[in-house]
Amino acid sequence: MARQALVAFCRLSPSKTLLLNLVEFMELDERPLPIVIRLLGALAGKAIVGILTYAQQHLGVQLKESWYETLQLWDDALKAYTDKASQASSPHLCLMLL
After folding, report:
1. Which of 39, 57, 68, 95 has CB 3.0 to 4.6 Å from 73, enough for a Cys bridge?
2. Mean pLDDT computed over every residue of the chain
3. 69 and 59 belong to one structural domain
4. What is d(CA 21, CA 5) in angstroms, rounded to the nearest whole number?
5. Superkingdom of this entry's organism (predicted)?
6. Inter-residue contact 12 to 50 (CB < 8 Å)
7. Do 51 and 21 lie in a common domain?
């Protein structure tokens, strides 16, 4: 399923995919492009969020709370953990989730 989400996102945003591939190729060829790393990181981060959103909305992928942490989306992680804790039927389970 994740592969399908990746393919679908790449179809939606070919210019970003092309840019990321070009930057990676040039770095491997020891001729890095003069692109600010923060910009590249922001593009990659947006691409990942886009892939996850597409997978969730169109492919029924259930997102894990820890994925938000990995992406450093702290507000989204807190909301996901809070939502999961509020859905738990046992107070002991709530403590284990947090």
Report:
1. 68
2. 74
3. no
4. 18
5. Eukaryota
6. yes
7. yes
Both tokens of residue 6? 């990746």
Q: Looking at the chain, how many residues does it have? A: 98
- Per-residue confidence band for 92, with pLDDT thresholds at 50, 70 and 90: low
- Amino acid 42 reads A
Say what the alpha-carbon torsion angle 42, 47, 53, 56 is, to the nearest 10 degrees. -140
Residue 69 is part of which domain span?
Answer: 65-98
Q: What is the pLDDT of residues 21-50, one digit of tens each?
A: 787 888 888 888 777 777 777 777 777 778
**Closest by alpha carbon to 6, among 40, 62, 49, 41?**
49
Structure tokens given for 4: 């399908």
Whether the predicted model's global pTM rises above the 0.70 cut: no
Residues 4 and 24 in one domain: yes
